[in-house]
Amino acid sequence: MSSKRGDAHRTRAQKHQNTYAFKNNLHDKHTPLIKLITNLNVCEVCEHCKSVIDWKIKYRKYKPLTQPKSCNKCGERKVKRAYHVICRDCALGSRCCAKCLKSADETKIIPPEPTPEEQVKLKAEMDQLIKSLPERKRRTFLRYMNRGKKKPRDPDADEYDSTEGGDDKKSTAPPHRTREELMQKFEQLKLATGKDDDEDDLGDFSSGDEDYEDYSDDDLSGSLSEKK
């Protein structure tokens, strides 16, 4: 493009075309730091801030903290994630984004990742609930809970794998499901169980009717005349 004033129109295509997408773990993918950054689950922020941090992770611009920094609300050194300005407790208490401080009423906040203690407590609660379900529904619920959420596929990464023949797949664990999602799935299975029971009852009732044969009036009169 010419630097001449007013000459902002270019007809030719871009000179340097990218043949494959950028891969942030191409050379040192086995180092612990790269694995930690690649498998990082961005949460406690709004969707816009999440996209910003995801871009930094994708193009290797993410710089993790070497030590916790001070929270802008409580003043304690409890902020352990980069680009966050308040700690987890303050973000959950005030229901706002930990990066841009927007309220949950203005934008959607990504739910936080549960702590190990919360995971154990949630698992115990779900184990107690699914005792009322049949074995088949119980196994369905356990598969739903253990698989977690599916992450959207990255088309750029698929393009790189197809062009370069890379077989290195991300071994990232799927995000944990929230309690609201698990309760919603439990209610769906419970309703499905009730419908199945009703259908079984109707099936038993209809099967009992098959024992009675349908005789017409002509058949009955013919049988009576034969007896006479």
UniProtKB/TrEMBL annotation:
The record ties this protein, via Pfam families, to:
DUF2039
Q: Which ranges are annotated Acidic residues under compositional bias? A: 156-165, 196-220
Question: Source species, please?
Answer: Anopheles marajoara
- Which portions of the chain have biased composition (kind: Basic residues)? 141-152
The record ties this protein, via InterPro entries, to: DUF2039
Reading the lineage from the top rank, the first entry is Eukaryota
Membrane-spanning segments: none
Bias type Basic and acidic residues, positions: 166-188
Query: Which intervals of the chain are annotated as region Disordered?
Result: 141-228
The protein's name:
Uncharacterized protein
